[in-house]
Amino acid sequence: MSTTTPGPTPLVDPAELIADPYSVYARLREAGPVHRISGTDGLPAWLVTRYDDVRQALADPRLCLDKRNAKPGGYRGLALPPALDANLLNMDPPDHTRIRRLVSRAFTPRRVAQLREPIRKTADHLLDAIAPLGRADLIASYAAPLPITVICDLLGVAPSDRHDFRSWTDALVAPDPEQPERTKETVRAMLGFFAQLIADKRAAPADDLLSAMIAVRDDEDRLSEDELTSLAFLILFAGYENTVHLIGNATLALLSHPGQLAALRADPGRLGGAVEELARYDGPAPLAIRRFPTEDITIGGVRIPAGETVLLCLAAAHRDPHRFTEPDRLDIGRDATGHLALGHGIHYCLGAPLARMETEIALAALLDRFPRLALDVPPSELSWRPAMRARGLLALPVVY
Asked: Whole-structure pTM over 0.85, yes or no?
């Protein structure tokens, strides 16, 4: 097969990309499997759009996450200090293998299973608070506080120490270019928070994930201090960011498809499969974490030089008609096996079982409590986070 090196694709309208990414990515997918694009920051990258190519690339060891393999001048993602950057999203084997194995020991199925009842109680408590109001913003009152509570319980963060994590993630995922100091202040605040939290846990260990990770660091000397801090940051950041968007997007999808919502209410036993389809239909991450080829590679007949930035478009892959029949249609009865919302290959999300369980419990509790749940505004009036790499609502006004 001959290979080609296309020129840059003009930057699409950022507002259109935020409001309707699937139409934008569909045009790109139909035009070709790989595009040389200019990101919203003006830096070049290669966008891969078709399911088979994206899935294969997610598991290709030649596409690394370590930013030291990136060429200067390309898109590299969020810049963080070493104490927050030495995490699994920036690592390749053998370090990735070592750290994932160690974290897996602490992130056990038993520990996750123990959270099922507390998650349901937290969901019920949050719904108790809004039930008398008749209307609410489900992001602020439910989809956001639920995963924050869960991940803080998992890590062992005391309720009195739980800060405004949503403002932190907002500043990192969708930084305001007119307020660069806000991002720097957020990074400083997070570094201080995790340093103090680790010191407290080291002085008084408990039965929580962070204490278990500290034991791995101190007893076996297998985690560096930066790796320990970065892992705590990643678990909090990813455990919150992805789950709040998955819950919010899934709720909106169901409210926008009354037939599917009715089918789920009629048979709650379909909820597990529905969560998989909802993750495919409108997942929390349109793009996988950026990757850098360690050698010249060819994807979809397009040659990509070593060291350049590759963006694997999950949003485009999930609507690829060659993989999913009528991909733009929500169908909770669909076999969505093979969706890539939680990754694929060695970088498959370590917290995937927890994210699935949280979303299933959150939806079950919500639908049980509010049989007349409906949107309080037309879908066209909803606002989305201004970020390419996160797909999430700023608010979800509902009545019940």
From this structure: yes
